[in-house]
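Input structure tokens:
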């Protein structure tokens, strides 16, 4: 007795159709078609998508899609896998999409919090530096905190004189 995948493959070969042709017509990944032919159902996306792959494959071969979908469901049941019903798989899909969106939003909010904290820290550091510098210049001790060579100080005074004119 041959398996579902072997029967599907023999139908394809008897019609002289290559996997590449089915991939081009159905836009189904060739690795999914090979997994289907080799009865490796765990490598299929699962749920309604697996049934859609079987329908597309059978339709491309000109086979009865309903009959081959039923055979696929029986084969997966024999192996011990269950294909979700349409309602259950769509509900699961929708809840997963919702969870993914929430996780993405939370991750973005977390990154924005860290960026805001760093920006605030930078503003506080710059404000602190400017405050200390202002007080130091007014009190006259700023030039002794950061010693500047005489040549650089002369250049600075010359540039300052440009703005005081």
């Amino acid at each position: 007795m041959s398996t579902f995948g072997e029967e599907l493959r023999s139908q394809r070969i008897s019609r002289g159709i290559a996997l590449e042709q089915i991939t081009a017509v159905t836009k189904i990944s060739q690795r999914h078609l090979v997994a289907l032919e080799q009865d490796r159902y765990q490598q299929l996306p699962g749920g309604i998508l697996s049934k859609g792959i079987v329908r597309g494959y059978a339709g491309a071969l000109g086979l009865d899609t309903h009959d081959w979908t039923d055979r696929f469901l029986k084969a997966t049941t024999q192996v011990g896998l269950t294909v979700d019903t349409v309602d259950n798989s769509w509900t699961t899909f929708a809840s997963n999409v919702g969870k993914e969106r929430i996780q993405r939003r939370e991750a973005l909010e977390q990154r924005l919090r860290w960026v805001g904290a760093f920006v605030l820290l930078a503003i506080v550091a710059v404000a602190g530096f400017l405050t200390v510098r202002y007080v130091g210049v007014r009190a006259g001790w700023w030039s002794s905190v950061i010693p500047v060579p005489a040549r650089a100080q002369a250049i600075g005074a010359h540039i300052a004189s440009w703005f005081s004119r």
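The mean pLDDT is 84. Residues 86-163 form one domain.
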